[in-house]
Each structure stands twice: as C-alpha cells, then as structure tokens.
Description:
Layout: H1 12-28, H2 34-63, H3 67-71, H4 77-109, E1 112-115, H5 122-136, E2 143-145, E3 159-167, E4 176-182, E5 190-193, E6 200-204, H6 205-212, E7 220-232, H7 246-254, E8 262-268, H8 273-283, E9 290-293, H9 324-327, H10 332-338, E10 341-345, H11 351-362, E11 366-373, H12 381-391, E12 395-400, H13 408-421, E13 424-427, E14 433-434, E15 438-445, E16 448-456, E17 468-475, H14 478-493, E18 505-506, H15 511-527, E19 533-538, H16 544-556, E20 559-564, E21 581-586, E22 591-592, E23 595-599, E24 606-610, H17 616-620, E25 622-623, E26 625-628, H18 632-646, E27 652-654, H19 674-686
Parallel strand pairs: 1-6, 8-9, 11-12, 12-13, 14-25, 17-22, 19-20, 20-21
Antiparallel strand pairs: 2-4, 3-4, 3-7, 5-6, 7-8, 10-17, 11-15, 15-16, 16-17, 18-26, 19-23, 21-27, 23-24, 24-26
Helix pairs in contact: 1-2, 1-4, 2-4, 5-6, 11-12, 15-16, 18-19
Amino acid sequence: MAEEKKIPIIHRDISWLSFNYRVLQEAEDPAVPLFERIKFLAIYSSNLDEFFRVRVAHHRNLMRLGKKTQKKLEFSPKQIVKGILRIVNRQQGKISEIFETQIIPDLKRNGIRILRRLDLDEDQQKFVEEYFSENLLPFVQPVLLVHGMVRPFLNNAELYLSLLLREKGVPDAEPEFAIVKVPSDYSPRFVEIPTQDNTHDIIFLDDIVRHNVALLFPGYDIVDTYSIKLTRDAELYLDDEFQGDLIPKIKKSLKKRNVGPPSRFVYDRAMHSNLLEYLMDTFGLDDADLIREGRYHNNFDFFKFPSFGKDHLKNSPLPPMPYPELEKAKDFFGAIRKKEHLIHVPYQSYDSVVRFFEEAAKDPNVTHIKIVQYRVARKSKIMNALINAVKSGKQVMVFVEVKARFDEEANLIWGEKLEQAGVQVFYSFPGLKVHSKLALVRREKDDTSELYAYLGTGNFHEGTARIYSDFGLFTSDERLNSEVARIFNFLETVKLPQTEFKHLLVGQFNLRSSLMAKMNREIKHAKAGKKAHMILKMNSLEDAEIISKLYEASNAGVKIDLIVRGICCLVPNVKGFSENIHAISIVDRYLEHARVFWFANNGKDELYLSSADFMKRNLSYRIETAFPIYNKELKAEIKAFLDLQLTDNVKARVLDKDRKNHYQVTDDDMPIRSQVEIYYKLLRHND
Length: 687
C-alpha cells in the first residue's frame, strides 16, 4: 500500500508570528503616516504580549509534561518554543532598527525630539529631577538584590530598571545588583519637557528614573542600568471547566491571572552577562524565558504617544457614513420588514445597530429581546437599552459568554448589572464557548407575531465597530429568524433542537458538515468540467480537516482564493497540493474581521457571512453561526467587496511557504487599496 503523503502544514503559532510581522511592516512603510506607524508599533507589541501570555505559556506548560505524554502530541513543544524565540528575537532587532533609524529621525524632522538623559540641558535636568521627586519617588520601589533573600515579585508586564552597582569608596568591591520600578501605571510614559525653541521635547519615563536613580542608592556608584519586563501566564486554570457553576471558578481564577508563572522575560540586549545571569538565578528563569529587546520595552504604550495637534501625521479621516434607510426611518421595524439591510462597519455607522435595541426598548409592540454578548464595550448604549427595555415591561434575555479571553471581568460586571435590572441572564456552558453574534426581537401586532433579527460577523461592541471591518444583517426573513429563535431556545434550555437547521450553519450541529458538503460540491463540479471556484475570507485558517479538503479541491481543479488576516496553516501553491490556491492577507487602517464564504456552485452561487473562523475550536467546540445572504443585491455587493480585496496591490501580502509577506503585485497599473476603495464605493452609493 502506497504511503500517504503528509500534507504541508505551517504550525499555527509560527504562522501567527508571520501575521504580526505584517503589522510590523506597516510601522516600517514610509507611505504610512508617521503617527500611524507609531501606532502599529504599539499594535505589534500588544499582540506579542498576549501571544506570550497565552500561546507560549501553553507550550511551556506542555514542556513540563512527561516525555511519554509529549510523544502523543503532533509537535514538539520544545521545538515550537525554540522556533518562536528565534523568530521573535529577529523581529525585535527589526523593531529597534525601525525605531532608531526611521521613527526618531522622522519625528525630529517634524519638530518632535525624543531625548535621552545625556541630551538634557541644565533647565531640562532640573525639570526631570523635580518631576521625579514630586511625581515618581513614592512609587519606584527600589530593592537591593541579596542572595538568600525572599525573591521580589515582578508585576505582570510592568517596567523595571535593573541596576549594576558598586559600593562607593571601595575600588575592588564586588558588583551588586538592584531593581527599581518604572511607575508607568502612575505617570504618562512620555513626558514633555521644557525647551527653548519651537520643538516638542519628549523623554521616556524610564529615562527620568534613570537620571535620578542614584538618589535611591546613596552608598553606591551606578555602573549601568538596563530595562527589564516579565509577562505572566494568562490562562484561567479552572478546577473543572466541564461541569458545575463556572462563574465562581472564573472569578477565583481571574484573581490569579497576574500572578501566574513567567511566560517571557524581556531584557535590554546590551545588558552585562553577569547581571543577566544574576537576574535569571534570582527570578528562577531559564534560556527559554528570555527575549532580547532594545533599550525600551512595553511599546504598546505608543498608543498614548502625544500628537501635539499634528493631525497631518495621521491618516486622513474617513468618517463613518450614515445608513439613512434605518437611521432616519420613522418606522424602524417596518423598514426591516420591507427589505433586508446590510451594514458594513466601520465604513458605515454602527448607529443602526444601537437603534435596533433602543427602538425595541421603547416600542410598545415589542415583547421579547434576546442577544448573545461575547465582547461588549464598558460603556455600552446597547446594554443600557436592554436595561431600559426591562423597565418598559419587555422580557429580555442575554446570554453572557464569560470565557471571552481578557473580557471575562467586563462581561461578569455587565452580567451582574443586567441581572440587578431584571434581565434574564444565562452564562457560559461548561466546556463550550458561544461565539455567535445574534440578536432577536419579537413584536406582537394585530394578533400576529413578528420576528426581527440582527446577524453579524462582529461583536456588539460600539468601540471595536469603529476599527473592525464587519458585516451585519437586519432581517425579518422567517426562514432565518425561526432558526435564530431555535438557537436562543437551545442557549436557554440546553435542549437540542428537534428539527435540523436548513438555512443557518450552526456550530455543534451542522456547521462543519455543511461546509465540507459545499466544498465537495465544488470538487464534483470541477471533476465534471464545470466552473468551480471558492472565495473564503476569515481571520484564521487552522483546521486540518478543512485544509485537507481544500488541498483535495485544488487538485481537482477548483480555483480557491483565500483572504486570511491572521493564522494560515495551509501552504498555497505547493506542487501536488495547492497549485490552484492563492492566498493573501490585508493589514491596513482597519482590522479585517469579517468572515465570508462564497461558493460558485456552477452559476448558482451561495454566499455566507459567519462568526466562525476555520479553526478546530470554532468548527468543533463552539456555538458559531454562518448565515446565508439570499438577497441578490446584497450578495452582489459583498461579492464586489471580495473581488476588490483580491485585487488589492497596496496593502495585500501574498501568503506562501516562505512567509516572506511580499506585497501582492497585480496587472493593474492603478494602485488599488481595497479599504479606501470600499469606503468611496459606499460613499458613491450613498449619494
């Protein structure tokens, strides 16, 4: 029997690092406005912090398992961690290069200087000394490190200076070591200091502490100082996630999140080796914990870099355009009953979604409102509308998914607030995450019952709706809404639906099988010599079964276009596997978040919008929803957006086995930046 060929797969975390490098490319691109490049440095850093706290911590935990258990894994966690560290260390060198050779000079050309302490004149030195005494001294927490003492605790993701000291007046004194906190949780990271000319002079908070650190150790000479940072495992380790009440378990685990074991120790690559060895011994670190960076860490603080009113160094504004058919409708639900409406945020305003709930809250004919809450803004008009709806006598049901990573606390707070207001709140299932983006309104009018639904690809979050690219459908289609109601019934009762889903593709029920069937149909068409084509847009593509099916489709002659923002474990354009697969990723001013699945179906095309990525967890272990677009005009509109993105030759990168992230080159002589093109296409349609 011939040996089956092993399919080409890129490990998900190696692929994710390639995605984060695409973010870094935006910081390097001179065509991107300066303050936007600085923001992309912050995004890269924020992404990487979460990656180490979650994914690398996961691999480190696997490394602690016995060898017999590790042999059962599909990969070696030790080799994956080694690969991650090699790639990240290389990228960190790139960050330092971008910052030192591009960002700092470009800021200077625009009248903004970042000064180090040796650059300060007398007046500026006096300023930083007074600033330290008046604002920072109570919070710096100096600690002299002594062998045998209780190990000091480094707070998660906070900045510290590590010091190399020698006792004053003792020429042959052995070096000693200390740490000092950089209190960026009490003071801005970037401090403007007075200057005599028309420039804006800025100093890092780190360097203010550096300048004054000798005051904290009067009996010592400060030989040198180096910045350090420790990030900690952010996983919520629940005693038993698969049964019992999850809420008290999650609350208990949240308290431990910031005191978890180390997942990364970041240090200045110029640090003396003896100091690094001492710190490793003091904090119980090994080589697998170490990441070399430049002089400054916590680049996510660049989100708050001062702009001094220089808006010409930012992206030109593209204000969300109104969707007047709903925003100005006198009869809001009548407008939805008349026809379906599709919004595309952030190009179009999110006000229609907010109004959906506000109108439902005050409409005397509305009897029920139901919604799935996955991530929600801390100040949410939608949640306030639900509270008002209860006060107006409506029955309101909210399913709160408390296992939304890093939003658990916010979701618990909203859940408790809603319960106190009289909302019927249901919480996470043990062992199952609910990721669907659904809302349902029931109206009773003239002895008839009407259902109205909102189905989306993004969360009910007014904040992310300004920067995440998502679709949302308002519909009164009974085919869809009766099945949305069936999902909510399952979430409330945990009783399996008695009839199959015929229109919606729902995780745990028919999502995976339906997607596979549609791919098999394209394969059948291709083998019969008919036109066969798929366009699949998502955040992540990781599921091995789906990847195998896509390889099979490619070999059968199906044309496959992939638009994958983040993880892509599939390897395009490999002989014998994926020669008919073309994959791109777009990183631009908005975060590509929509999931769209289009199947040519021999001229009878089908298009689905979805909450689900092609990851094993989404297809097998979550309640996800993919919903069809039956309206021909809306389907054509979405398909046109996909076609635009596939021709992007400004922000699209080609995904391939080498993970070089080369920008896509097309035959079009005109530059096509799809996000900008989509905005103006919608604007022309509005006119």
